[in-house]
Design goal:
3 domains, 6-stranded mixed sheet, alpha+beta, 14 helices, Alpha-Beta Plaits, single chain, Arc Repressor Mutant, subunit A, 6 strands
Length: 342
């Protein structure tokens, strides 16, 4: 027996081979089960499969009878079957533990979190950034995790799927990993994907906060109709502030924009014109290009808005009020009731 393989893993193996050499008898069901159990135990002990197989083959040296080979083949096949099943079970258990850890981490459940985090290479006292991607495509998530860990190391990257989002947790000291994650999402996901990036946060609670910011950035981008593929929570900080007093925001939207509901042609073209003007920093020609209309049409719409609401984007104070009202309308899915138009 090889000194690298515990003797009990191949107990009875030499006797089985000698019987095969003498009588031609192949291993029976009980013997094959014992081989499978030996293979499972070898996997659990961390014995390399090649060492186990080598030890099984070495035991046949000196037994020259042709009938030994069929018995040896069955024995080795049973050993390998047990070994592979144990490895598969271990992988499934590791994945279950990983999913449970990610779920606890992103929910902020603190039971043995720091201890478990070390197992996955995370040092929770550090600052981390959470990035999420929407628009999963088949098995692309597995390839992204493999590519990221190959470049940055498995101790620096945690990738998992949660609530339909691909979640990537990286140290704040590795900003390049966020860009690499986005690159792989762009190359693997179908059209319609979007990435949200949370702010760097420290500790287990920080990871939860960064995850919620990243997912919230995706939601805000949808509600605001943003065209960007990558949205950063740091760029959208004003919107949670605006929504903090919902009743005040609803009152502002209603007071400022309600007159647009009675405009001929509907309110939507006028809202889109205001959004284009704000995005173009007041440049009517640039706004017209964004909208695909003439500059004259933009001027005419702005005059209608001023006439209906009493507010003009040319006045700094009124511009701020209008822009805030338009943002609130998009965030709150205004109008809430659609009156009959004139």
């Amino acid at each position: 027996m090889s000194p690298r393989v515990p003797a009990e893993l191949l107990g009875g193996h030499l006797r089985t081979l000698r019987e095969a050499a003498g009588t031609g008898r192949l291993p029976g069901r009980d013997e094959l089960d014992a081989y499978r159990a030996g293979g499972r135990r070898a996997a659990e002990l961390g014995v390399p499969l090649r060492h186990l197989v080598d030890a099984a083959l070495a035991a046949a040296e000196g037994l020259a009878a042709p009938s030994v080979l069929p018995a040896l083949r069955k024995a080795v096949a049973a050993l390998m079957e047990g070994y592979e099943k144990a490895q598969l079970a271990a992988l499934r258990e590791a994945e279950r533990e990983r999913r449970a850890f990610v779920d606890d981490l992103l929910h902020g459940r603190a039971e043995r979190l720091a201890e478990r985090a070390e197992h996955f290479g995370l040092r929770l006292a550090e600052s981390y950034v959470v990035t999420v991607a929407r628009g999963l495509a088949g098995t692309g998530a597995d390839g992204i995790e493999r590519d990221l860990t190959e470049r940055f190391g498995s101790h620096n990257i945690l990738v998992a799927v949660r609530d339909g989002l691909l979640v990537c947790v990286v140290p704040a000291t590795l900003p390049a990993a966020v860009g690499e994650f986005t690159h792989h999402v762009r190359s693997r996901f179908p059209a319609g994907w979007r990435v949200g990036v949370g702010r760097p946060q420290r500790g287990p609670g920080g990871i939860v906060a960064s995850y919620r910011e990243a997912a919230g950035a995706l939601d805000l981008a949808d509600r605001l109709g943003l065209k960007h593929d990558v949205v950063k929570a740091a760029d959208l900080l004003v919107f949670p502030v605006l929504l903090r007093d919902r009743s005040a925001m609803e009152d502002l939207v209603t007071s400022v924009l309600s007159p647009l509901l009675h405009a001929r042609g509907g309110h939507e073209p006028l809202l889109e014109t205001l959004e284009a003007i704000f995005a173009a920093h007041g440049n009517q020609t640039a706004a017209a290009r964004r909208l695909g209309v003439s500059a004259r049409a933009v001027t005419y719409r702005l005059q209608r808005i001023n006439r209906l609401t009493g507010f003009s984007p040319d006045d700094p104070t009124q511009r701020f009020t209008l822009e805030t009202a338009v943002l609130g309308a998009r965030l709150l899915d205004w109008p809430w009731e659609q009156p009959g138009g004139e």
